[in-house]
Structure formats: C-alpha cells, structure tokens
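Backbones bend. Our protein:
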Amino acid sequence: MNDLKKNMEKVKVVDEAMKQTGIDKELNKQQQSITKMGTLMGANPVNLMTGFLNQNQTAKAEAENPMPKIEELDPLKKKIIEMLCEGTGTNICDSGGAYGRNWQRNRSRDFENEPAANVEIWSDSVSVTYNIYHYLKNFLEINRDSEALHEQFMEFSNEPDNKDESWLTNMEDFIKKITEVFEYNGLVNTYNYESILGQVLQYGIFGYDGELYIILQIHGGCDVRGGYTDPYIFQLLEHDYFMIAQTNVDCHCDKCEGAWYSDDSGYNWYGSNSEDDLEWEPNQDEKVVYHKDCGGKISFSVMEDF
C-alpha cells in the first residue's frame, strides 16, 4: 500500500514534468496514459517517455525520408542499396536531429552514378573517402551458397536460446559454430581504426566449404554506438585486397605523369614511379589539387580491381 501511494505521487510529478518540459506535446494521449500507468505500477517513467519519443522521432524521420523504390535488378547491388537505405531508427540522445543520419541521406542518393572516390578539398588539406556502395560491390558476391548460409544464420538467430540476443552476439556465436578453414579473429568495427571508407562497417569473416564469407552490418545511424542494419551474409571474393582497399589511395599528376600511393588513408605518400616527395597545392575555390612541382592537376583513385 505504501508503494502504491508513493507511485501515485510519482504520477503527479511525472504529469507536471511532462507539461513543464513540453513532452506532453510530443507524446500522444495513449503514450501519456501508458507512461502514467507504468509509473503507477513501478516502471521507470524516464525510460517509458524516452522510448516513446524515440518511436515518434523515428516515425517522423521515416515520413520525411521515405524508402525509395529500388529499381536495380542485380541482386548484389540491390541488397547493398537496401542495406544503405534501411531505417535503423533514431534516438533523442544522438546528434542525428541536427546533422542527419546516414540512412536518411542515403535514401535520396544515386549510388551507381556516384564516383568511387570522393575527394574533399580544403585550403590546406585533402581528404579521400571510398564510396561504401562501390567498395562493397567490388569485393562481395551473392550466390546460392551465401544465401543458404544467410538462411542458416536467420534460423540460428530465431532459436529459443538466441532470439532475445543482440545481432552482435548472434553474429559472433554463429561464426564460432560454423567457421572452418579460415582462422576467425573476432568481429571488426571499422570505426576503431583509420580507414577511407565512407561509412562504418561491422563484420566477421569466416571460412566455409573452402570459400570465404562475411557477415556484415552497415552503420546507418549517427552515433556509432548504435544504428546498425540487420546483418547479411555475402561471399567475400578476396580477403587481402578487401582489407588493403580500406586504407589505400592512389594519385596521379596529369602533367608530369608522376604517381604516388598511400597505404595509411592518405597520411603518408610514397612515389610509385618517382622518387620525388609529393607536394601539392589544394585550391578550395576551384576544387582542384595542383602538383607543386609542375603545376599539373592531381587526381585521386581507390582500389577497385584486384
């Protein structure tokens, strides 16, 4: 009885707090009633309100950025686009409301016609990123074997002991259960090291029946701690180049024909056909990088073939 009285007082406090903060304008009547009833029964009202606010914010973001109709017929390209456009939710505590989220921006993009290398030029520096769509389509494959493995993974994830686990846990446990040939080194999150990839990936690579496969999530949110797509299994065409391409950039001067490469995401450059150090002059207004020695224009590229 004492607990009930305390909770009734909490309901009054919650009701007043919602009015003073304007949350009552953000939640519909049903959500407000559930919050009060939950508080009366001993639930945490902050968790209830946060959940409803996230839910409403996600619905608004989905309405403002509807899922595009994907015309692509190639199964690999189509799946990558679907993952890049997959709604991974919103959270009132992230900065996506101010800066947008990857999945929202991706729904208005024309991936196939975008360049593989995205070059940003400032007055004193140059940044090159690898378009994540082109990166994935260059190194992955979908076939009957990969689709069969994905079905096995989904069945595994829906087993009674696994259905309440996170995707991350099920990914790791599935790989440990099925892996062979290739040494499994745990799950990788590309946010944890320097790379030129345009979006963060989370994945595990494993061997099965003499081939390499990857179980992959794409980060579609804003805060890297959450907002990942559902996992999907692809065949991995070449492991070493898949890794090398995450950090390798090439550049070429159209006048002197000098060529350089970087194997650390553009921090250091080495001559491919020249012993001269690379010195450039970025022109932010013209969006051009000039070779300091000869005045030629420098172009940049990423690894697309292997």
Notes: The mean pLDDT is 90. The radius of gyration is 25 Å. The chain has two domains: 2-64, 72-306. The first strand starts at residue 117 and ends at 121.
